[in-house]
Specification:
Oligomer: single chain
Order of helices and strands: EHEHEHEHEHEEHHEHEEE
Strand content: 15-25%
Distance between the termini: 46 Å
CATH class: Alpha Beta
Helix content: 40-55%
Number of strands: 11
CATH superfamily: NAD(P)-binding Rossmann-like Domain
Structural class: alpha/beta
CATH topology: Rossmann fold
Shape: globular
Strand order of the largest sheet: 3-2-1-4-5-6-9
Length: 249
């Protein structure tokens, strides 16, 4: 049994990852900004679980959350950096700077703040694994997604750079990069506009589900310790690239 931390576990891929790791027999620390959802998830998981409420973009809050962990929970074997979002889909020249900063703060700075709390201890133990949830958007850009794509490209480069820094330490770092996944992601992107969100998923006959991504993350985490998956890019069979889909009739 390992102790797994999943950020952004209140919904979507993060929640599915927490469920998958718990079902596989691991202890899970779930984090996010919505305490009620975290506590409900903890109550539903089949193995020991702990809820930590904090915003990954708030460095002080991250530090406080980790400092609050007692000895029973402070050794994190696997970190799943899932917290992230997209804000809007306007052309760059029409998009608001506040939206850019929100994406950068959560998708990049937040990932770094949490990693900074976990990684030195993993290196000291010469054991541990970090799995970053990236995106096909980190490999290919699309119109209206300039800053979001940039943040996910940053996640890809951060993952590669940390992997180079970790050579010889026994600590592994991987990236799982999904295409379109039907979650709350696009409802958040479009400020709760469900019609716009659903239109994205309707472009595919069948998009990925959060459980599909969670299964991939669990598989990456379950490889033997001498095996490191660098990057896994997965899409629905109905998606060939960031802009090529098999649409509903």
């Amino acid at each position: 049994m390992k102790t797994v931390m999943v950020t952004g576990a209140t919904s979507g891929i993060g929640k599915a990852c927490a469920q998958a790791f718990s079902a596989a027999g691991h202890r899970v620390i779930v984090t996010g900004r919505r305490t009620d959802r975290l506590e409900q998830l903890v109550a539903e998981l089949p193995n020991d679980a702990l809820a930590l409420t904090f915003d990954v973009a708030d460095r002080h809050a991250v530090e406080q959350a980790f400092a609050s962990l007692d000895d029973a929970w402070s050794t994190i074997d696997i970190l799943v950096n899932n917290a992230g979002l997209a804000a809007g889909k306007e052309p760059m020249q029409e998009s608001a700077v506040d939206k850019w900063l929100r994406m950068i703060d959560i998708n990049v700075s937040g990932l770094l703040f949490v990693t900074a709390e976990v990684l030195p201890k993993m290196v000291a133990r010469r054991s541990g694994q970090i799995i970053n949830i990236g995106s096909i958007a980190g490999h290919q850009a699309y119109a209206g997604g300039t800053v979001y794509c940039a943040t996910k490209a940053a996640v890809d480069r951060i993952t590669q750079g940390i992997r180079l820094d970790l050579i010889g330490t026994g600590v592994r770092v991987s990236s799982v990069d999904p295409g379109v996944v039907e979650t709350e992601f696009n409802a958040v992107r479009f400020d709760g506009d469900q019609a716009k969100a659903q239109a994205v998923y309707d472009m595919l006959a069948r998009p990925l589900a959060a459980a599909d991504v969670a299964e991939a993350v669990l598989w990456v985490a379950s490889r033997p310790e001498h095996v490191q998956i660098h990057d896994m890019l997965l899409t629905s069979t109905d998606q060939a690239s960031i802009s090529s889909y098999a649409k509903n009739a």
